[in-house]
Amino acid sequence: MDKAQEIINFIEEEMLDDDIEIKNDMSLFRGRVLDSLKMARLISFLERTYGIKVKMMDIIYENFDTINNMVDYVDRKKES
Predict the structure, then answer these.
(1) Is there a domain that residue 19 lies in?
(2) What is the structure's pLDDT at 17?
(3) Is residue 53 part of a domain?
(4) Contact in structure between 47 and 53 (CB atoms under 8 Å)
(5) How many domains in the chain?
(6) Cα(52)–Cα(26) distance, rounded to whole angstroms?
(7) Of the candidates 26, 38, 9, which has an alpha carbon nearest to the alpha carbon of residue 65?
């Protein structure tokens, strides 16, 4: 399973009460999928799953608004 699908599965299984289909380029903040509490859970998942450390200064809209942005962010963190 690729990173995008793993992240989508986590969000759908652990965070959503409604049947919302998450797309890779869907805005998770404007779509009201993510809020601050869910964001903290998601960051914890990303750190555990991909062995990265998310710094406070990295928690910005551009890194976490879409699944594609998160995958790009994780890939950048793993390279550094």
Answers:
(1) no
(2) 77
(3) yes
(4) yes
(5) 1
(6) 24
(7) 26
Give the tens place of pLDDT for each residue, 60-80.
999 999 999 999 999 999 988
DSSP string of 18-31, one letter each residue: S-----TT--TTTT
What single letter denotes the amino acid at residue 38? K
State the residue for tokens 């404007």: 30
Euclidean distance between CA atoms 30 and 27, whole angstroms? 5
Retrieve residue 34's tokens. Answer: 């993510």
Whether residue 22 is contained in a domain is answered as no
- From residue 22, give the alpha-carbon distance in Å to each of 14, 43, 59, 80: 13, 17, 20, 28
Which domain, by its residues, includes 78?
1-8+33-80
Residue 26 near residue 67, CB atoms below 8 Å: yes
Q: What is the pLDDT of residues 13-40, one digit of tens each?
A: 999 877 888 999 999 999 889 988 999 9
23 within some domain: no
